[in-house]
């Protein structure tokens, strides 16, 4: 069986949050596991929190499919799970047509789709990245990352504050620890930070600080 490598090189359109350290962890947010199929269960506060991002994504849509998804999302206040999955499937079909053996697995704890590519000795990462960028346009480019942010951080809260709160709950930092303390520690050279960045608990707080 060919090995799997994670592939998620889709460019994000101005709605990415700050990088929290330990690589490009894009969406360490709070929230429930998964979203409703039609998005109708979102509260009004959760809906309004992403209004600007949804409208910005709509303005950047490059296909009728994307525009349809985002027009519905603007009205509903969120992207629906069914549209998210269809967008990823359209992307996958495009990749397969280009000879890239891409598949998606669903994370059972969050309901989010994780992209993998089956590779062999002939795997060309430059080609795969270029294909991914091309296939994302008009399919999931304006949809995927925004949907995943909405699921994991429905209130669109400050993501560093969420991580700091998680670190406090998990007793990795004192109650007096602040967002600025986090930024200071993460800016230090490897090995000099007071934060135990190599621990599983720290990684869990980055991945899902709402837990």
Automatic annotation (TrEMBL):
Residues 31-51 are annotated as: Disordered. Residues 31-49 have a biased composition (Low complexity). PROSITE patterns: PROKAR_LIPOPROTEIN. This is Lipoprotein. The lineage of its organism: Bacteria, Bacillati, Actinomycetota, Actinomycetes, Bifidobacteriales.
């Amino acid at each position: 069986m060919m090995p799997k490598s994670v592939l998620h090189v889709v460019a994000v359109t101005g709605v990415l949050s700050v990088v929290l350290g330990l690589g490009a962890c894009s969406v360490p947010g709070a929230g429930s596991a998964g979203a409703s199929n039609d998005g109708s269960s979102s509260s009004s506060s959760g809906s309004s929190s992403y209004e600007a991002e949804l409208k910005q994504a709509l303005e950047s849509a490059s296909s009728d499919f994307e525009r349809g998804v985002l027009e519905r999302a603007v009205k509903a206040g969120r992207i629906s799970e069914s549209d998210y999955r269809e967008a990823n499937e359209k992307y996958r079909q495009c990749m397969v047509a280009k000879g890239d053996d891409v598949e998606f697995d669903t994370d059972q704890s969050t309901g989010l789709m994780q992209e993998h590519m089956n590779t062999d000795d002939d795997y060309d990462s430059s080609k795969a990245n270029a294909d991914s960028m091309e296939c994302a346009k008009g399919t999931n480019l304006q949809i995927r990352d925004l949907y995943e942010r909405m699921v994991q951080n429905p209130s669109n809260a400050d993501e560093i504050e969420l991580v700091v709160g998680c670190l406090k709950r998990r007793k990795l930092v004192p109650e007096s620890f602040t967002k600025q303390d986090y930024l200071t520690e993460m800016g230090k050279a490897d090995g000099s930070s007071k934060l135990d960045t190599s621990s599983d608990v720290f990684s869990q707080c980055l991945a899902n600080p709402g837990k």
